[in-house]
Design a protein that fits this description.
five-stranded mixed beta sheet, about 450 residues, single chain, alpha/beta, de novo design (two linked rop proteins)
Length: about 450
């Protein structure tokens, strides 16, 4: 039997008879935690979130309570809350499930977060490719406003907060929080330099701003329900609460699954939950956290120490699903997008696909990223078209290293890490491709003599 899911955020998603309207949400206990939060002081809600150990579910895994703590509350400026619903990382499709099927859960989490942080105007930034999601959210916000769960004098109190749905133009870079902020302001989404432009101090309209992911904000409701300390004990230390994992690629049962942090391993997810490989095929590699995470090779062993000093010696199937374990083996859990590859996958072609995506999505502000991502695309495309060169593996690695650490935002790492890890882990395929291309070119040249 596959390990049982612990569905908290996805509790109502896909349940028979459950709809995304307000009446259904209220019948299932909706907005009761908002009522409870309003019996608490805002600072006490913030404390519970900090105590919970909740880490951001959007990619970086930064502690949500700490991010809230950094807010410049003494500036006298308005404070803004932004929900990052851009979800543009390839391999990631969890947040849209919440938006489409349980939108009031997100709105309730946002209103609790807004109350705790003193926000009077909140935004949901959703990518252009989710038009139905935007429509659903706008309808849900209007329902919540009509029922006095949003808008003026919420639940009869003197606290008011409006929520606005802002539709982006479909740029991957808007998943980066400062690029997202620039986009809301109506500008080209060029990420800002940090420091000084940390959103908690100088964010939207140069005011203190909190940017949290959809799944992160949904967890706020859960923290208010059971308390920060209890939440911190759900899952492994450093991976409190549940995590939604999106599984795609060559597995029998791709989909989205929710488990407590560290409760199962990557092998459990692939072979037990998702049914394993198709008949006659073997696991070759896994990208564990969306396309920007470094790839893991199936036949390798991973040895080292966790942050707490615990030694490990794991095969790919043994890696626990949590933040720190993936970091310990040289990659990251990122956005939770698990991309499974079997032994039919051409790794050079797979990297060429990723490089084409990143070259297209670079905002172009930083020269290393703008030029480097395009050069990596050109090299891998050339290799796939039978024109590879013997030095291409080294060239790709060299280009990626000249991007990493030399850009304003983390897009530089996002586009360079796949190339670095693909070439390092599957160098034999890159060398075979170039040798094969070189041999074909020599034969063509001999025909001309």
């Amino acid at each position: 039997m596959p390990p049982a899911e612990t569905r908290v955020i996805l509790k109502n998603v896909d349940q028979p008879g459950y709809s995304n309207d307000l009446d259904c949400y209220l019948r299932n206990g909706g907005y009761e935690m908002l009522r409870k939060a309003f019996t608490m002081k805002p600072e006490d809600v913030c404390y519970e979130v900090e105590l919970s150990g909740l880490r951001g579910r959007g990619g970086a895994g930064f502690p949500a309570g700490m991010k809230w703590k950094f807010l410049d509350r003494k500036s006298g400026k308005p404070i803004y809350l932004i929900c990052n619903a851009d979800e543009s990382e390839p391999g990631t499709f969890k947040d849209r499930q919440i938006i489409h099927k349980d939108p009031h859960q997100l709105i309730e989490g946002m209103m609790i977060a807004a109350y705790a942080t003193g926000t009077k105007l909140a935004f949901i930034y959703i990518r252009e490719e989710f038009p139905e999601g935007a429509r659903i959210l706008e309808k849900a916000i209007e329902e919540a406003r009509s029922a006095n769960f949003a808008g003026p004098n919420i639940l009869g109190s003197d606290y008011s907060c409006e929520i606005v749905v802002h539709r982006g133009a479909g740029a991957y870079i808007c998943g980066e929080e400062t690029g997202l902020i620039e986009s809301i302001e109506g500008k080209r989404p060029y990420p800002r330099i940090k420091p000084p432009y940390f959103p908690a101090v100088l964010g939207l309209y140069q005011c203190p701003t909190i940017v949290n992911n959809v799944e992160t904000l949904c967890n706020i409701k859960r923290i208010v329900e059971i308390g920060g300390e209890e939440f911190s004990h759900r899952g492994k230390p450093g991976a409190a609460g549940t995590r939604i994992w999106c599984v795609s690629g060559q597995v029998k049962k791709p989909g989205y699954y929710e488990f407590e942090g560290g409760a199962i391993t990557l092998g459990d997810l692939i072979y037990e939950v998702c049914g394993g490989m198709f008949p006659g095929r073997k696991l070759k590699a896994v990208i564990p956290g969306g396309s920007s995470a470094k790839i893991l090779r199936a036949d390798e062993r991973y040895e080292g120490h966790l942050r707490d000093g615990t030694a490990f010696d794991w095969g790919i199937k043994d890696i626990p699903l949590d933040f720190d374990s993936f970091m310990a083996v040289g990659t990251m859990s990122g956005s939770g997008g698990v991309i499974v590859m079997d032994d039919t996958v051409d790794m050079v072609q797979a990297l060429a696909n990723l490089n084409a995506f990143y070259a297209h999505e670079s905002c172009g502000q930083c020269t290393p990223c703008r030029e480097g991502s395009l050069w990596m695309k050109k090299v891998t495309t050339r290799m796939c078209n039978g024109r590879g060169r013997v030095e291409d593996a080294e060239l790709l690695t060299s280009i990626s290293r000249q991007i990493e650490g030399r850009t304003i935002c983390a897009f530089g790492e996002a586009c360079s890490w796949p190339t670095q890890s693909f070439v390092a882990k599957f160098r034999e395929e890159f060398e075979a491709k170039t040798a094969e291309n070189h041999s074909a070119a020599m034969k063509d040249a001999n025909r001309l003599i």
